[in-house]
Write a sequence for this structure.
């Protein structure tokens, strides 16, 4: 047995760090949050921005039950951070009719997507999946889980920095 | 390293208005120590059994050669990185993306207030050539400046062979995602990447991928944590997934970040496992500003006007998130890049 233990956290077990100001600084400058705490207090599949750099964002998503279908005009990536999450992928027959090809960020589909089933991916802790451009995707999680999504700020991205960040 | 190879066709900023230096020289190996000495402009570099000496017209700076080589290795591997690489509170380089300022005391208020600071400017490719030759010559057999102290030999003593395999590692830069067909491959025992001892408990299973016929190339996933557990370097972010200019650059960290990285843009850290404590100082003066302690799941932005140095007591997984857009240097030069990514 290893003498080392890798310390993870989860939606039901997390412990946030801290900021100590030494001089002439402000905790808000560090936009400091904990993705598991964000997911623990979010609604299912609320896509909460936890990091933003110009137009790009990282979202923390509470996966619970089955999500709506989403698509985007660019690749996105999802990482399962604690518990299993299944990804379903559908190749859209007409992606441009579903998502403006010039748009950015994930778009929620009104109903089921029209297209061929591409496959499924069952993610465990630390597994990353491609959410490819031109596809629709949805998530399923039997118990609450945390997803980290690499994407662009879009209509589904929720900004509530004052609620989630240390001040 | 996390930078994109191509930074686009942008103007090169030169805030100090410095001329380009063109003098470079490599002196023969010293009769006693066996190490070569180097000159770039009026900066001189030599080492002996324990120390690196950096001479300038304003004074000579001494560093432990252990710390110097670890810092030099990052400066080389990161292509001078984004912003400033402070080897320590006195010496370092600032990247202007095509040209580089090399400084002595210029970002230390004690030196600048007394006029003891000194700066010269170089073409990045020319200074990089000297730095690469220096790290190759000064690194002895058995010492790996990328490795944590517990897993490598020592840098001390007179010239004793080299470790060019270690100091010339090819960086990982996935074009779309690690593990995809034609992209950066997964790490395995067979490819020379065993699981690090401190990550023995990291699961090595792969996602269950069920692709319908014809969609095998697009239904893709991999075990990111398992991939990181097999990293053979520390403090060396590598691109693992790409959304346009959004670069996920995870890395494994142990012991101390060998440099104080001075940001010129906002940089995000997402602690994936374990913990790291960051000492934050003012980017210009070096005055301490804050201590940021990050645990698993914590997310923090490093403002664009600070320098930071991390301390990781156990090997940890850190996601460094960069915006590699070629427009960012222009925005920095025009003063349009924010110091803090989010106002709330």
């Amino acid at each position: 047995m290893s003498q080392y233990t890798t310390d993870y956290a989860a939606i039901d077990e997390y412990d946030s760090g801290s900021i100590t100001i030494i001089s002439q600084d402000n905790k808000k400058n560090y936009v400091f949050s904990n993705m598991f705490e964000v997911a623990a207090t979010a609604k299912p599949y609320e896509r909460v921005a936890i990091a933003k750099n110009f137009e790009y964002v990282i979202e923390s998503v509470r996966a619970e039950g089955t999500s709506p279908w989403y698509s985007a005009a660019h690749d996105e990536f999802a990482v399962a951070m604690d518990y299993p999450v299944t990804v379903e992928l559908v190749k859209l027959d007409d992606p441009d009719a579903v998502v403006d090809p010039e748009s950015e960020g994930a778009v929620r589909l009104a109903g089921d997507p029209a297209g061929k089933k591409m496959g499924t991916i069952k993610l465990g802790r630390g597994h990353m999946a491609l959410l490819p451009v031109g596809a629709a995707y949805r998530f399923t999680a039997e118990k609450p889980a945390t997803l980290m999504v690499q994407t662009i700020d879009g209509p589904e991205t929720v900004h509530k920095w004052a609620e989630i960040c240390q001040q | 390293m996390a930078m994109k190879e191509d930074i686009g066709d942008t103007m090169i900023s030169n805030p100090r208005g410095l001329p380009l230096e063109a003098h470079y020289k490599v002196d023969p190996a010293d009769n006693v120590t066996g190490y070569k000495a180097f000159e770039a402009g009026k900066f001189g570099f030599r080492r002996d059994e324990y120390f690196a000496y950096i001479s300038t017209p304003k004074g000579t700076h001494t560093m432990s050669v252990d710390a110097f080589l670890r810092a030099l290795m990052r400066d080389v591997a990161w292509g001078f990185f984004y912003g400033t690489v402070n080897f320590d509170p006195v010496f370092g380089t600032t990247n202007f993306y095509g040209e580089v300022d090399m400084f002595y005391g210029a970002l230390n208020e004690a030196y600048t207030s007394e006029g003891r600071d000194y700066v010269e400017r170089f073409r990045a490719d020319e200074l990089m050539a000297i730095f690469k030759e220096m790290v190759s010559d000064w690194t002895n057999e058995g010492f790996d400046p990328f490795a944590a102290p517990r897993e490598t030999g020592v840098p001390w003593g007179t010239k004793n062979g080299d470790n060019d395999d270690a100091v010339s590692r090819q960086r990982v830069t996935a074009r779309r995602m690690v593990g995809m067909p034609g992209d950066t491959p997964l790490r395995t025992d067979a490819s020379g990447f065993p699981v690090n001892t401190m990550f023995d408990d990291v699961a090595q299973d792969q996602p269950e991928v069920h692709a319908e016929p014809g969609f095998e190339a697009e239904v893709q996933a991999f075990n990111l944590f398992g991939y990181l557990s097999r990293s053979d370097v520390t403090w060396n972010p590598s691109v693992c997934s790409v959304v346009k200019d959004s670069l996920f650059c995870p890395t494994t960290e142990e012991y101390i970040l060998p440099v104080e990285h001075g940001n010129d843009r906002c940089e995000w850290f997402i602690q994936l496992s374990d913990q790291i404590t960051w000492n934050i100082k003012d980017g210009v003066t070096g005055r301490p500003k804050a201590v940021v302690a990050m645990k698993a799941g914590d997310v923090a932005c490093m403002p664009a006007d600070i320098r930071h140095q991390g301390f990781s007591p156990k090997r940890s997984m850190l996601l460094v998130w960069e915006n590699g857009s070629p427009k960012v240097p222009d925005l920095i030069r025009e003063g349009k890049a924010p110091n803090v990514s989010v106002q709330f």
